[in-house]
Write a structure and sequence with these properties.
By secondary structure, the chain is α+β, with helices and mostly antiparallel strands. The chain is built from 9 helices and 14 strands.
C-alpha cells in the first residue's frame, strides 16, 4: 500500500501529513523517533472507528506509513473495554442530555445560571446561525482580537478569510453553529458536529473584551437546549482534563455541568521499537513525564514570556 499525504491541523496550524487508507479510514502517523498511527478525526467519524483491529493492523503493516504503534479509542458513551490490547484511559468532558431543565436545575452551578441570566439582561442574543460569509467575517474578528489565548500564542490569529472559511466548514452537513451576538455583532460562537446521537464541540470561543457579558456561558446553555431539540444523548466538550486537573478550563467545564467520562484507548505495537517503547512507557509526549507543579510553573513562565513579547512588538509598531 502506497503512502499518500493529507492536510491536517496541529494546534491550528496546517501540516502536510503522511497518510494511508485502511478499510475506508484515513490513517496518519506522527512523531519522529517513534511513529504513532491513528485514524484521522476519529472522534468525528460515525460508526466503529476500527471494526476488526487485528485485520486493520495487519493491513496497516503492509503500507508505507511505517508506524511503530497504532492507537484507537472507543467513543462516547462506550466505556466498557472490548479488546485485550494494551489499554489506557482517555477522559472526555460530557453532559448527558435529558432535558434543558435537568441541566439548568441539577448540573449548572448557581454562578453559571446567574451568568446566563446576566448575558440576556445585557442584551446578548444567542441563536443557531447560518454558516455564511457574514458569519465567517465574525469569526475572523474574534480570532483577530488578540495574539494570545490562555497564556499561549493563538494560532488562529490573523488567518485570512479563505483559510478560516475552509477550516470551519469540514463536516458541514453534520455541523451546527451557535452564535452569541451583541448589538448584532458576533462576539462568540460554538461549532458542534453531530456524530450519531453525540454532539461534540470543535470550537468554543468568545471575545475577551465582552467577558463581562458572559457570552460563553450563554453559548453552553444554548448548546444544551439545541442538543435536547435534536435528540442528542451526550454533549462532548473535548477532554475533561488535559494536563492540569486544576486548570481554569477544567473548572469552567465542571461549573457548566460537564462530567468526566473515561473511555478505553488501545495501543497496538507494530514493530520491535513499538513493543519496547510501549513496555517502557515511552509512547507519550515529554509533557506527560513532567510533574504537575513543575509543568504548571513552566506554563506560567511561558505565558509571561509571550505576554512580554507581544507587548514589545506592540510598542515597536
Amino acid at each position: 500500500m502506497n503512502a499518500e499525504h493529507v492536510d491536517i491541523h496541529v494546534k491550528g496550524k496546517p501540516v502536510r501529513a503522511v497518510s494511508t487508507c485502511v478499510d475506508g479510514r484515513t490513517v496518519i502517523a506522527s512523531g519522529k523517533w517513534l511513529k504513532t498511527a491513528a485514524v484521522m478525526d476519529e472522534e468525528l467519524l460515525e460508526g466503529e472507528i476500527v471494526q476488526n483491529p487485528d485485520l486493520f493492523v495487519s493491513t496497516l503493516k503492509t503500507s508505507e506509513l511505517r508506524a511503530d504503534i497504532f492507537t484507537f479509542a472507543q467513543k462516547v458513551p462506550d466505556t466498557t473495554p472490548k479488546h485485550k490490547y494494551h489499554l489506557e484511559w482517555d477522559n472526555a468532558a460530557v453532559i448527558p442530555i435529558s432535558t434543558f431543565s435537568d441541566w439548568w436545575e441539577k448540573r449548572a452551578e448557581y454562578d453559571v445560571r446567574k451568568a446566563v441570566k446576566r448575558a440576556k439582561k445585557l442584551g446578548v442574543v444567542v441563536k443557531l446561525s447560518e454558516y455564511n460569509d457574514e458569519f465567517v467575517e465574525g469569526i475572523c474578528r474574534i480570532y483577530n482580537e488578540s495574539p494570545l489565548r490562555q497564556g499561549s500564542l493563538f494560532t488562529h490569529y490573523q488567518k485570512d478569510f479563505d483559510s478560516v472559511k475552509r477550516e470551519n466548514s469540514t463536516y458541514l452537513e453534520r455541523s451546527a453553529y451557535i452564535g452569541a451576538y451583541y448589538n448584532d455583532e458576533l462576539i462568540g460562537f460554538i461549532r458542534m458536529v453531530y456524530v450519531g446521537s453525540i454532539a461534540t464541540t470543535l470550537q468554543v470561543i468568545s471575545q475577551k473584551k465582552h467577558f463581562d457579558k458572559k457570552p460563553t456561558n450563554a453559548l453552553i446553555a444554548k448548546a444544551v437546549e439545541v442538543c435536547e431539540m435534536r435528540g442528542v444523548s451526550h454533549f462532548v466538550y473535548g477532554s475533561y482534563v488535559y494536563n492540569d486537573p486544576n486548570s481554569s478550563l477544567t473548572e469552567f467545564k465542571r461549573r457548566n455541568g460537564f462530567e468526566p467520562m473515561f473511555l478505553p484507548r488501545y495501543y497496538i505495537p507494530m514493530t520491535l521499537k513499538g513493543k519496547i517503547a510501549l513496555r517502557a512507557n515511552l509512547h507519550h509526549q515529554a509533557a506527560a513525564w513532567i510533574p504537575g507543579p513543575i509543568l504548571g510553573q513552566l506554563r506560567r513562565i511561558r505565558s509571561l514570556w509571550y505576554s512580554r513579547k507581544v507587548q514589545s512588538l506592540s510598542e515597536a509598531l
